[in-house]
Design a protein that fits this description.
141 residues, 5 helices, binds zinc ion, three-stranded mixed sheet, Arc Repressor Mutant, subunit A, three-stranded antiparallel sheet, DNA-binding, homodimer, alpha+beta, binds manganese (II) ion
DNA sequence: TTGCTGATGCAACATTGTAGCATTTGTGCG
DNA sequence: CGCACAAATGCTACAATGTTGCATCAGCAA
């Protein structure tokens, strides 16, 4: 049975973008990550794989992935964004930020449950639920 | 009937801090604001009142207020924090960020409703629900 | 009033991200 | 394949938002 998921190259081309070294590499990093990654984290992962890019190129690559709806940006620990693939989780879930170790964990089970309680006139584009506390691993020590 | 809310001076002293010009002024600005304010917004409001402080002093004052539990920090528009008094709303409510005008509105009616669905081992300190979209005023135009 | 300690101001630095522009590189086409 | 052209990259400079170190100032208790 063949893998039905599109390869990085196919995914990029399907969105009308050029298949560049940067996009392929970033997609592969995000695809094999199990938590949302910061720009910094992505750069480190790339370097371990022997690939280096200019800081700006990375920012632009991530921006493009978000514009295309391939990745999402979620508020991570202080002031830096974290990125993850959309198809990885279906992109409507909360995130848990551990105040001790700083890691961000996806919480598939916790739903915002807004119940359409917005005041009249307001329109919602996206909800972002971030939980702050201590993760299981940190609580053990 | 006397005002039962503590004055800025009393509030500061009750927390064991020195009653300084900066703390009193910032508390008054936050106390009369009807939306969360950014560091920038606070500085502007202070200047209109004829009070100016060093940028760093403002940061440290706000940091102190948050540490003392007097104010809270909520994620505002891109990369800057917004501040509001805790007692103003009881501090467990969502915030709406308008992607057009950038304003942040308190949503008393929208509750996170987490339902204690956290995975075992995780402990929650604070939940932060930020809604992104267009506010009523922007939707009218 | 005085002295101690916390708070402030100033300068320098850090982090995270953007903008402009020359150069390189993917891609479609002959 | 080899070209031409637009898209993507790299570099430099800049912007926004905070933070750190350190000398000075000022609240407050005695
Ligand atoms: Mn996630
Ligand atoms: Mn609020
Ligand atoms: Zn942790
Ligand atoms: Zn608006």
């Amino acid at each position: 049975m063949p893998d039905t998921r599109p390869s990085a190259r196919e995914l990029i081309a399907a969105h009308g973008g050029r298949v560049t070294r940067a996009r392929v590499a970033v997609l592969e990093v995000l695809g094999s990550a199990h938590t949302p990654l910061s720009h910094e984290g992505i750069a480190s992962a790339l370097e371990e794989g022997g690939e280096t890019f200019d800081r700006v190129t990375l920012y632009r690559t991530l921006e493009w992935l978000v514009e295309q709806g391939i990745a999402t940006r979620i508020a991570g620990s202080e002031r830096a964004w974290n990125f993850e693939l959309v198809d990885r989780h279906g992109h409507h879930h909360a995130h848990f930020h551990c105040q001790r170790c700083g890691r961000v964990t996806c919480m598939e089970e916790v739903a915002p449950a807004l119940a359409g309680a917005l005041p009249p006139g307001f329109s919602l584009a996206q909800a972002e639920l971030v939980l702050h506390g201590a993760c299981a691993e940190c609580n053990r020590s």
